[in-house]
Each structure stands twice: as structure tokens, then as C-alpha cells.
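Course assignment 3, question 2. Fill in each field.
Student: A.L.
Task: Predict the tertiary structure for the chain below.
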Amino acid sequence: MLQEFFEKYQIDDDIVAAGVSGGADSLALLLMLDAFLRPQGRRVVALTVDHGLRPESRAEAEYVAKLAAERQIEHHILIWKGEKPEKGIEEVARTARYNLLCGWCSENGIGTLAVAHHLLDQAETFLMRLQRGSGLNGLCGMAPVSEKNSIRLIRPLLSVHPDKLKNFLRAQKVSWVEDASNACDDYLRVRVRKFLPQLTAALDITPERIVDTMSVLARSRDCLEEQTAHFIRHYVCRYGTAGVSVSVKQLEILPAEICFRVLCSLLKEIGRRDYIPRADDVERLQQRLFTEKFRGATLAGCEILSFRNKLWIVPELKGLVRLSKKDWEAYVALHPQYERLSLPYKLKLSLYKSS
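Answer field:
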């Protein structure tokens, strides 16, 4: 299983980090990675985040450390320091966990981090995103390979049922930690997890069937993303990191879904965001773009401008002094490729600031 995954996604790192909480899923991932990598002269490094949210969290981290030491696996405990919020703790803790894990990897020259999301996690994600009204991308679920904080994030177990992971640990005579929060109905994911067996019993909608459907949706998403990337490659003009422009006419003749995806991609890139903007915000922008009244807008850390039949997207610039004619002439003297171009003032400002 791991060999097929590593070959498919061309993961050839000598060292792979793994996030290990002490639960069955992550412990199984750690031991599987060790068994796969060690015979090749490669290795896995275990990273455990102690959130400090429960009294037993330190003991759980120490248990993972002991287990890793017995198997001669390098292990580090990463501590989430500082005050913890009273509301939205689940999302904040998730962000803090990835910041710690990816931060450690960056500091130690490790480019790949493995996490133990499995088949049930993927099915739960589908139902949670369905409940929130997600579009196609959201309903495709978690990607097997993605990027997080400039670290490659891999999920090799997305097609594996957690019962198989527990059976693997039993065969290895390894016990695991049960997190009490996994039974707390305050969290949407827990409520969804408890609902899944009812869905299966009533309608024969199994987690496996949900994940198969997500794979079909992912093929449709990949096709749309390929068309989006083709349009951006051929019709979008870049000005370093200062902004982009595209013909309004070329945008307008696109299918609505491709136009939407082009806008999302460019806004994410120019706004330097980890995620695309909210779909409803982009849809409202899209509806305004092709009207005579459109002059400009701000969204996702970007300014969107209409100038000489083109749409221009530049980073939103706040508190910056105006660009004088003299300053622009000095800039153009150093960058003569812009001398004969008709550029909107905001792009000139962005170019000058980025120099």
C-alpha cells in the first residue's frame, strides 16, 4: 500500500516526518512508515504535538516517545504555548498543530509530513462539507498530497478503514490512546461520525460508497482545474509579483465555472492566501465584472481594477504614500520593459513597492 502511494506521487525523500498523537490511526501510520522506509535506508521522524488542552496530553505524548524509542525511531514533542481561546478551539488547535508540525519540518530541512487521515475521516469530511453547502472542490474532500506552510502534506491512508489500522496494531501488540474529545457531541465531526452507521443502516450509504463518489467528483474537478490552468497560462499577463491582467472579453466568453475558478486562483495567488476566497464573494464579484458600472473592488487582500478593457488584480496596498511621476520615471529607468506599457496607477504602485 505505502509503496504504491510513494511511487504514484514520486515521494523519494530520505526522511519523512509523521504527526503522531498516540491514537490508533497515527500510531499505525508511524509503524507502517518505519517498516516501509527503514529497509530502503530511509527513515521516519515522529512528531507529537502537546496542545495542553487536557491533563493527560503530556502523558500521551510521553507514551509515543517511549514507543518510538523502543523501535529506535527519532521522536520530538512540540508544545503549543500561550493562551488558548474559549471559543472555536477545534479550528484554532488544528491551525496551531499544523503550524508546529510544519514549522519543525522547515527548521530541520524535512520537506514531507505524513498524517493519518483515513477512509472514515474522508467520508465524514464529505458530509460536513455537504452540511456547509460546499461546492465541487470541497466535496472532493482531503487531497492525498497537498501543500501546507511550504511543506508537502501526504495522507497515505485515505482509502484504509480505521478498523484495519487497529487490527494492525493488535497484531503488533501495540496499544493506543482513546481521546475523550472523540465522543464529545459539541463537535460537528463527532456528530457526523455517530450518524454514519445510521446512514448505512437506513439507506445502505456506506463510507466506502461516499469515498468512491468523492473520487468521481475529483475527476470532474481535475478536468476543470486543467482547463483553468490552460487559460491562465495562455491569457493571463503577469507583472512579477506585483499583479496580473487579463482581457475582460476573454474572461466573459469563458464558461461561468471556468471564469469562477480563474478568479479564485488569481485572487489566492495575488492575495498570498492559503485558501481561495469564499465562493459567494467570488460569485458576487463575477456578476459585477461584466457590467458597465464596474470600476473596481477589493477581495481577499486584492484590489480588482478595470482599465483599458482589461481586468487587473494587484495586492491591496494600505497606508502607502502616493507614487510621484519622478519616482515612476526612476523605476522605469531601471526596468525599461514597462516604459511603453499603459498600466493602471495601482499596478505601478505595486511594482514600485515590490522593487
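Instructor remarks: The CA atoms of residues 187 and 354 lie 43 Å apart. The longest strand covers residues 43-50.
Grade: pending
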